[in-house]
Amino acid sequence: MAGPRLTIKPGSGRKSPAALAAADRRPAREIMWAKMRELRIFTVEDVAAPARLDKTSAQYFLNGLLAAGIVTAEKAGRAQPTRYELVKDPGALVPRIGPDGQAVTQGDIRAGAWRAMRVLGNFTLRDLHVTSGISEVDAKSFCKYLVKAGYIVFRAKGAGGRPSVYRFVEGRYTGPRPPQVARIMVVFDPNIGEVVWPLADQADVGAA
């Protein structure tokens, strides 16, 4: 005797585009770059949406690509978004460039993040990644010590799936060079030539 039939509904097991985007754990720039290579001609929204980014954050990356000549822009009418075209494709690896279109070396990464913090004012780790190219892992470590040293503060701590939001303390800005976190776990400010964390009267000298 035949058993009961298994009815499969059309589309069963398939994820919506929104669900697929939410499940993509790649860095935002990597998602944007892959989408640019797939579409070749696109708008900011076309590449920002898959990476779950707002248009302003996505535009930082595009500005660098424009300055480097990797993409070109064609402005449409007032009611139409600017369309971009990928004209130089260096490959699957995301171009490591700053907003001025110049190649960014590993030593420049934190300097770029430091500049981005001041420009953005309020930011998440993902914002720093998109605007400066720093990895979210490195951004988290960098921010941890900048909080300890008083350069940034929490505007809102992450909870319930929401990311932490940091605020740059303008009064603590000492110059363009980023504070350095030494291997002995101190924060050194090269602009003023001083160790700014831990201070002599602080008992907690270990990493959090």
What is the count of DSSP helices, taking H or I runs of 4+ residues?
7
Structural class designation:
alpha+beta
Extended strand count: 9
Strand residues, percent:
5-15%
**Average pLDDT reading:** 84
Strand order within the widest beta sheet: 1-3-2
Helix content: 25-40%
CATH class of the largest domain: Mainly Alpha
Structural Rg: 21 Å
CATH topology of the largest domain: Arc Repressor Mutant, subunit A
Second rung of CATH, namely the architecture of the largest domain: Orthogonal Bundle
Topology:
Blueprint (H helix, E strand, L loop, with lengths): L16 H7 L4 H12 L1 E2 L1 H5 L6 H13 L3 E4 L8 E4 L19 H15 L1 E2 L1 H8 L3 H14 L2 E5 L8 E4 L11 E2 L5 E3 L4 E4 L11
Short description:
This protein is α+β, with helices and mostly antiparallel strands. The chain has helices spanning about 15-25, 30-40, 45-50, 55-65, 105-120, 125-130, 135-150; strands spanning about 40, 70-75, 85, 120-125, 150-155, 165-170, 180, 185-190, 195.
Walk me through what this model shows.
- With 208 residues, the protein is of the alpha+beta class.
- The chain has two domains: 17-86, Winged helix-like DNA-binding domain superfamily/Winged helix DNA-binding domain (Arc Repressor Mutant, subunit A, Orthogonal Bundle); 106-197, Winged helix-like DNA-binding domain superfamily/Winged helix DNA-binding domain (Arc Repressor Mutant, subunit A, Orthogonal Bundle).
- It is 36% helix and 14% strand.
- It has seven helices and nine strands, in the order ααβααββαβααβββββ.
- It has helices spanning 17-23, 28-39, 44-48, 55-67, 106-120, 125-132, 136-149, and strands at 41-42, 71-74, 83-86, 122-123, 152-156, 165-168, 180-181, 187-189, 194-197.
- A three-stranded antiparallel beta sheet has the order 1-3-2.
- A hairpin with a 5-residue loop joins strand 7 (180-181) and strand 8 (187-189).
- Helix 4 runs parallel beside helix 6 (125-132) and helix 5 (106-120) crosses helix 6.
- It is elongated, with a radius of gyration of 21 Å.
- The relative contact order is 0.10.
